[in-house]
Design goal:
Helices cover 28% and strands 33% of the residues. By secondary structure, it is of the alpha+beta class. It has three domains: 176 residues, no CATH class; 100 residues, Ubiquitin-like (UB roll) (Roll), CATH 3.10.20.800; 239 residues, no CATH class. A hairpin with a 2-residue loop joins strand 1 and strand 2. The longest helix has 19 residues.
Length: 559
């Protein structure tokens, strides 16, 4: 049986060779290109035949819903690749079959696909109607559902495919297409299910955190992540992650440390490169959404998963003072500040750049800051003095003391002296609860703290004048301490007095100028605890008593 098979196989090879030998270096019989017979032709003869008989059409004409459209072939840079076409015909597989069964191959096309697709998209915008996807939003605490609306579109892929096929095969028949309905609306049962899911997200949020970054998705943001037909919108979740990536991702940063006269003149902390692990975060968000939908949880905080790329030069490689670790960071915002206040915040924070503090040293904010007056470069801006908000030199300095206070709390350092403002100031509650401010006014009011770590600490402020944000970072040697602050508790709230209008003969009649803004009085309390090696080394309660503040307006009376 085996011998019979071998004999048959050898005979078959012999038969194939006898048939194919005459066509060496020629295209096999029964081969057509765009309807032109090229069988038995050499490559050169076949190429010449195509050059003589094939012409590029000037335009592509087709209809959509009976309306004619045309695309100039010059707009898509259409050309024929005859060499590639002939090579394909010459090497076409199953050559033995070609002797028995004709095959019509298309011409190889060379064109700008993006230009063709763009042109079809323009036509689509004229013939189609964009569908309205179902959506949900919260209005006055109630879910309002937009059920969506069907749209109309053309199948760009189908049109593109048929156009190219006709050109490739030199088919001159008219192409006609119809628009198709895009089903975007929901069935009644789907609408009800969508509303039930959306209602469960009212008042809930997800917070992403990494280092100083806190990215919050409110309930309306979370509604956008729901797929109206169930599960979640992968596309919109990835869109939120892309936004987070722009804020969090960074390249590795090598450390620089230059000291002159016991002041760090230049300091660049080493920072590992960071890239958000997007696949993992997508998974975490879906799990968090499941939790919010299926529990009474109001907020879920997610630590952003990242991939780390280490810096080559670390902090400890460039100094021997123990400045190797970020101990704490504090942030504040001062949007809405007048130009003079912005100027003063910038000037005051610059006094703290590169300040080195030895171990066991007590530190006075006012001593580092120095004199605050027009003589030292400060401009007039609003300050609280003698129970009034008045223009005075150095208005804005408390933005700096408040930001440093927050960094000290985060670093777990002992706070020796701190005083709250007389009333609640809006700048210090931009993104933060009340009670986390610290006022200074030399020589009576100061912010004092102690370096009780085993090494030097370095204070490093950073200001962003575009976004009007201020950050203080404290670097040193970690001794394992962990600091926590409780959520501030607001009690004994007192409404502000009625607005007060004062006649001012220096202002033109009809002019009203506000010089004080109202603020509620309150008592705000939070606890500050620091634990080291299982032992509480700091347990402190901060109490801020804010007076109710009256809005005062000057009313012009001058004639």
């Amino acid at each position: 049986m085996t011998k019979i098979f071998i004999y048959f196989f050898v005979a078959l090879l012999f038969f194939v060779s006898i048939i194919t030998i005459p066509f060496i270096k020629k295209i096999y019989p029964n081969t057509y290109i765009a309807g032109i017979y090229l069988g038995d032709k050499t490559k050169e003869t076949a190429t010449n035949l195509l050059l003589e008989n094939i012409k590029i059409p000037e335009k592509i004409i087709f209809k959509i819903n009976g309306i004619s459209y045309e695309i100039l072939t010059s707009e898509i840079d259409l050309e024929y690749d005859f060499n590639a076409t002939i090579e394909r015909a010459y090497n076409f597989p199953n050559k033995l079959g070609l002797i028995l069964k004709p095959v019509n191959l298309g011409l190889k096309l060379d064109f700008e696909k993006n230009k063709l697709t763009e042109t079809l998209l323009i036509i689509s915008s004229k013939t189609g109607i964009e569908p309205i996807k179902p959506s949900a939003k919260i209005v006055n605490g109630v879910i309002v559902i937009n059920p969506g609306k069907n749209g109309v579109e053309i199948d760009i892929n189908e049109i593109e495919s048929k156009i190219l096929t006709n050109i490739s095969l030199q088919i001159n028949e008219e192409l006609s297409f119809n628009t198709k309905v895009v089903d975007a609306s929901l069935k009644p049962s789907e609408l009800e299910d969508y509303k039930v899911r959306a209602t469960k997200l009212i008042g809930k949020e997800i917070i992403f955190t990494f280092e100083e970054h806190n990215i919050k998705l409110s309930d309306n943001n979370l509604l956008e992540l729901l797929d109206p037909r169930g599960d979640y919108s992968q596309e919109l979740i990835e869109g939120q992650i892309k936004k987070a990536s722009r804020a969090v991702n960074r390249n590795p940063q090598d450390s620089v440390f230059i000291v002159e006269n016991n002041i760090v003149q230049e300091f660049t902390p080493s920072k590992d490169g960071i890239t958000i692990n997007e696949d993992k975060l997508v998974e975490n968000i879906k799990v968090a959404m499941d939790d919010l939908l299926n529990s009474d949880s109001k907020a879920i905080t997610l630590e952003i998963p990242v991939v780390i790329y280490p810096a080559k030069i670390k902090n400890e490689d460039v100094n021997d003072l123990g400045i190797n670790t970020l101990l704490g960071r504090g942030n504040s915002n001062f949007k809405g500040s007048i130009p003079n206040r912005i100027y003063n915040v910038d000037l005051a924070q610059s006094r703290f750049k590169g300040v080195l503090i030895p171990p066991n040293e007590e530190v006075s904010f006012n001593n580092i800051l120095g004199d605050v007056s027009s003589l030292t470069g400060y401009k007039a801006a609003y300050v609280i003095k003698d129970g009034k908000t008045v223009l005075g030199d150095g208005g804005g300095v408390c933005q700096v003391s408040t930001t440093l206070f927050r960094a000290l709390l985060n670093a777990g350092l002992p706070i020796i002296e701190r005083r709250a403002h007389a009333y609640r100031v809006g700048y210090y509650e931009q993104g933060f609860p009340p009670g986390l401010d610290a006022t200074v006014y030399s020589p009576t009011t100061d912010l004092k703290f102690k370096n009780d770590t085993p090494a030097y600490i370095l204070i490093q402020p950073t200001i962003n004048l575009a976004n009007l944000t201020l950050t203080f970072e404290i670097y040193g040697t970690s001794d394992g301490r962990v600091a926590t602050t409780s959520k501030p508790i607001i009690s004994s709230q007192t409404a502000p007095p009625a607005d007060l209008y004062i006649d001012d003969p220096t202002l033109p009649a009809g002019t009203v100028k506000q010089i004080e803004h109202k603020a509620w009085g309150a008592k705000v309390t939070f606890d500050y605890n620091v634990v080291k090696n299982g032992e509480t080394i700091i347990s402190q309660r901060f109490v801020s008593n804010y007076r109710p503040w009256q809005a005062i307006y000057l009313r012009g009376t001058a004639q």
